[in-house]
Amino acid sequence: MEVGSMLTVIPIFCGLMVLRWLLRNVNWWIYERPLGEKQYYLPLGDLGLPIIGNMWSFLFAFKSGRPESFMNSIVTKYGTNGIYKALMFGKPSVIVTTPETSKRVLMDDDKFEPGWPASTVELMGKKSFISIPYEEHKRLRRLTSASINGMDALSFYLTKIDDIAITSLDKWSKMGEIEFLRELRRFTFRIIMHIFLGSEGDDVMHNLENEYTTLNLGVRAMKINLPGFAFHYALKAREKLVAVFQSVVDQRRKERKGNVCYRKSRDMIDGLMDAKDENGKQLDDEQIIHTMLMYLNAGHESSGHTTMWATIYLQQHPEIFQKAKDEQEEIIRRRPPTQPGLTLKEIRQMGYLSKVIDETMRLVTFSSMAFRVAKTDVNINGYIVPKGWKALVWFRAIHFDHKIYPNPLEFNPSRWDNFIPKATEYMPFGAGSRLCPGNELAKMEITVFLHHFLLNYRLERLNPKSPVMYLPHTRPVDNCKARIHKISKV
């Protein structure tokens, strides 16, 4: 009987060992073996299991509340090379984690191009900034930069942002319990809608905001277009958003064709429709709509989250709060009595508040990584990034590098005193030619809100120990349930 049992167990054991060997080597067979001799110059690392690759450990680390453990485990296993192979988001990838390796990937447009997940590309549009080739990207950036980050544009937007910040804070202080993050996302969405669509945005803002929430949940999801999956619902939301934007563009073109004097105040969509390159070429409807889709999504999500965390950190550190408040009060004291509100000059004088925001963006790192793909075989520090492989720039590893930022988990705005990081040592907006084109506008939104908050309000979190989730973005699970209290002035 024992011999019979052994004869049964041995084949099963051997079969399991063969299956284990196959599972561990399928990715090598598919992705590395075809490289021939070049496979021996790949970075150290592990492509993991078929299809899943390294995504299981990535998702476990982020969903367990210990996002740094993902890269820490790789570094512990393979050393501090700053470059590792992995299978991420269904693609063979090379992860870079140091300023030097990141610089090679982000600033060499001849060898690398955008490599965002397929779901992101389809939802944001193939003619948006994240997808188009380098030369077309430069052209689109030239055509739109003045309308977004130019001094005249920022001065024009500042008045409206100031008004919205004042009215929003006053409203929230009377509402009692609120989800602070949800209200901030509405605040930043209202701003970006006004910038792009002017007064037209008021009528459709609520519906568009809901659609954008659905869209954002699908941006980093698996591209599975079936009911029940985030990408499917995001695609439906995108269709509705495109229809709204197309109707606005059609109406503007109709008014222009009929020489209708339709408004004195111009908005971003006017700027996009008027923009011409050196050859007189203008943007087509699809380019305009894809640009709007991207800006409206990025322009309120990142700003809303960053503003929430900056407010939380300030409230958690009374000495930092007071120092930032003193700076704002000094700006008010120096203001001429006839000046109605904030100016760009005053914002430029908020040196300490700027450090608070920079430190918040470092500590939160809204986007954990940037996606590129190698256009040709690329040698980085003696390792090869094969043509067609993804290159992932791991912002979190750099922003939490103790050699650059001592005690990196500490919120310390003063670390920025007399410290100017290199371009790839601090990348809240990316780096290189594809640096986020709305970076100045985003920081201005955050600054204006915090200016008024510091002067007149305080935050009372109702669940200060609420767990934090890190996907798709870092936020408290309860969306920061809180009360906003207006400070009585003596």
TrEMBL record:
It comes from the Eukaryota. It is found in: Membrane. One of its GO terms (biological process) is brassinosteroid biosynthetic process. SUPFAM superfamilies: Cytochrome P450. Keywords: Heme, Iron, Membrane, Metal-binding, Monooxygenase, Oxidoreductase, Transmembrane, Transmembrane helix. GO terms for molecular function: ent-kaurenoic acid monooxygenase activity; heme binding; iron ion binding. Its cofactor is heme. It is a single-pass membrane protein. Pathway: Plant hormone biosynthesis; gibberellin biosynthesis; Hormone biosynthesis. Pfam families: p450. One of its GO terms (cellular component) is endoplasmic reticulum. Belongs to the cytochrome P450 family. This is Ent-kaurenoic acid oxidase. It comes from Acacia crassicarpa.
